[in-house]
Amino acid sequence: QEYLEFRKERSRMLLSRRNQLLLEFSFWNEPRPRQGPNIYELRSYKLKPGTMIEWGNNWARAIKYRQENQEAVGGFFSQIGELYVVHHLWAYRDLQSREETRNAAWRKRGWDENVYYTVPLIRTMESRIMIPLKISPLQ
Q1: Can you tell me whether residue 90 is helix, strand or coil?
Q2: For residues 122 and 130, what is the distance between their CA atoms, to the nearest angstrom?
Q3: Which segments constitute the NIPSNAP domain (predicted)?
Q4: 42: β partners
Q5: Checking CA distances to 55, which of 6, 10, 45, 100 falls within 20 to 30 Å?
Q6: Helix axes of 111-118 and 95-106: crossing angle, nearest 10 degrees
């Protein structure tokens, strides 16, 4: 009974909801608990249908340019829900270190080439900055 009342109350607060079942790219680090404080950036890409393999092949090479500072937390792609959606999760100490780390990637020979080949595969992209809750293993 309590659960049914909760669902009824919750439904008045929700404007929309979408679910996805995601799989992890094999070439990314497996997400592990992190010491904080950190902020997290979730970058989401909606790809053109039929381009997931090409995206994965390019990022399998590109990820090496972003491993130096241990900012790569995880890379995932949709299996159920909206398809051809990719999520990259990055950890940074703060917004300043995010900017410095991203700029450093552009100075590495080869990074620009990987970006050049992946940009045409993207329909839309979104970036969200998240701050972990105290109970999160990702601090």
Answers
A1: strand
A2: 23
A3: 40-137
A4: 89, 128
A5: 100
A6: 100
Cis amide bond preceding 132, omega within 30? no
Q: Where are the alpha helices (DSSP H) in the chain?
A: 2-13, 52-62, 95-106, 111-118
Q: What is the mean pLDDT of the chain?
A: 91
The pTM (predicted TM-score) of the whole model is 0.84
55 has a pLDDT exceeding 90: yes
**Three-state DSSP class for 16?**
coil
**Where are the domains positioned within the chain?**
18-130
Q: How far apart (Å, rounded) are the C-alpha atoms in residues 61 and 76?
A: 16
| Between residues 68 and 27, the one the model is more confident about | 27
Q: Is the model's pLDDT at 68 over the cut of 90?
A: no
Nearest to 118 by CA among 79, 66, 80: 66
Helices 52-62 & 111-118 angle (0-180, nearest 10): 170
Per-residue pLDDT at 65: 85
